[in-house]
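Inputs:
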Amino acid sequence: MVKRLTLILTLALLVAMMLVLSMPMSTVAQDAEPTPIVGAFGGGETKISYWNGLTGSDGVTMNEMLAQFADENPEFEVTSEIIPWNTLYAKLQAAFVANQPPDLILMHASEVPQFANFGVLMDLGPWYAGNGGWFDENDISEITYSGMQYQGVTYAIPLDNHGRGLWINTDMFDAAGMDTDPATAPDNYEDWVTLMQAVTLDADGNNAADPEFDSENVVQWGYVVGEWPRVNFLSALAQHGGEMVSEDGQVTVNSDAGIAALQQTVDLVYEHNVSPPPAGFDTWQGFASGSVAIIPTGTWFRNFAVDQTDINGMAWPQVQFGEQPATWFGIHAFMLPASSTPEKAEAVQALLQWISANQATWAGSGQVPALLSVQASLDAVNYPSNILLGQTFTEYGILDYTSTVTQEMYAALDPELDAALNNLKSVEDALNDAAERMQQVLDRAM
Amino acid sequence: MNSKSISGNGVKGRLTLTLKSRETLAAYAFLAPFMVFFSIFVVRAVVEAVRMSFYDWHILRPMRPYIGIDNYVELINDKVWWISLQNTVVFTALTVVGTTIVALAAAVAVTRPIKGQSFFRVLLYMPSLLSVGAVGLIWVWLLNTQFGIINYGLSFLGIRPVNWLGDPGLVIPSLSLTTIWWGFGFPMLIFIAGLQGIPEQLYEAARIDGGSNRDLFLYITLPLLRPTILFVTVTGVISHFQVYGQPFIMTTGGPGRSSYSLIFYLYQIAWTAFRMGYGAAVAVCIAVIMAVMTSVQFIVLSRRIEY
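Outputs:
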């Protein structure tokens, strides 16, 4: 009888576990409507297949634009497939080998050299006004234009500049008596630490500068170092006057500048107690749930912050830990496969002309339109983050590293940064190991 | 056999040979469809992968120079390969042992004559029907340090939040736990079949001789389940040694490289760096390791069972 009871209780426990395990599914579900992964817009005879990696809230804006394009141009049908960036690059390789690439691809400018080097991208130089085309290269920044090129050939049409900035919880700033005006943002490491300590609180309400502060029981973090550490590091590296690769082709992430940049970030966790270790901490949900005061994020955060949180927040410029300001930014750019037929290229050109003419709508995604004229036309009420962060890119932005092996180098760097930030390796060991592997990658590509 | 009575010896021999030949031909005919597809999609791919491993082979680059064993030399000196191998071996050992124990316990439980037996069998098998993506996302939330229900439950016991996926000492066991939950359903079915194949009279005889339930399990059930255990562990090792989805979805290999698995690293080499030649060398070595491990399992566990 006892054994039977034990058996029934065991099975009942298993059933309970199954039921409990089904609960998180409802937690994951958000109120916001998810972005369709594959969307078909319009029903015309001219068909365009389009792949992009806009998995964030910016994908919603892109799909809205495509729907509007299809409404205005009923002869087109656009099939848009949203694929996470890393998977997109892998899938593209297979698609090119199979000679079945999409008609249009949105990629990062940092990928232009790699795919151009393989000879699979179409020369879009004739589409630029300087060559008699429709896209005005004088209406984009020089650095953006240079990002479209590889070995003197122009392979892409830019959509936006997107990059690093902060988002702050203004209620937490107010409660700590801190000014929320972005113009008051500190310009050195010590002042940033002071600010972050002021908005880091333990369960008893002590801030991180208080001698009574309990670092084992933090309920509100001032900062989070785990949000895309690589671009934080590259920004801080530049702030200290360093660079990822020197002009003579040497990887220099383990330079004095690199070590200082990463050590300062590590110290935010283990010395100043203003950030949790990265592993296991969900930064976006942490901000959305009101347990993070400052999140290093980017232009793409706008829709999430506005639509999917109840937090009163605003954009701030990137932190400055070194002697000079610097912030990482990248470029989304459109590319076509070299195998495009003239008819297909003409159809895609019509779509890109429409998107370029409507770049102001793209600002709704939070990204900074590539066209300078559109940037200048944005109003401060509706697009404060685009304007603020866009100015920082223009004034002191550092463009994402471009080479034929960018992704492979990042794959060598990322785990080492993660190891240092999680205190698994010393900063010097992590950067030395990263530099060694990155140099091997670079040397192979030479 | 009718040919024996009808024919003389010489004729009989020819006819017997003919029958054997016919049977052989029929066997090959039945095997042919499989062999054709196996040759095209497996053998050819394996041969091609081995060949590729001797080249500097980038998927989109037309020039693919022959480099001999350079890829294998690089592999031996590759620190990340050794980290990934260690992680994978630990994960496989934990998962295979855990899955076998849980599956066997579940099979024993649902083989007993209880009400709702079929319901419990279906319920316990259900996680196996989920995709790795769904399983990964569910467990990322369950194990989440800030919002996870497991840490929430532990808080009632006064235990501080555990960083299940962020602690280098816990991340592999956590991935293993996830995989055991996900994967024990199929071996449970195999064990149920194995248990039903054990003759009941053996248990009856043992009970008459005064054997306890523990004795019955240890000295009858377990030994007679050895072929089943061999099958479950061999297929488990082959399957779990190729773990990819769980670290990819739940940890992206972190913290640091604490949860890099061999296939995770292979994917990075092949599809992030696009170094197919080096990736092929990694794949060949993984296959060799798995073949060796499987052979060892057969030698250790495949003692002849008779009943």
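Remarks. Confidence is low (pLDDT under 50) at residues 19-32 of chain A. Residues 2-28 of chain A form the longest helix (27 residues).
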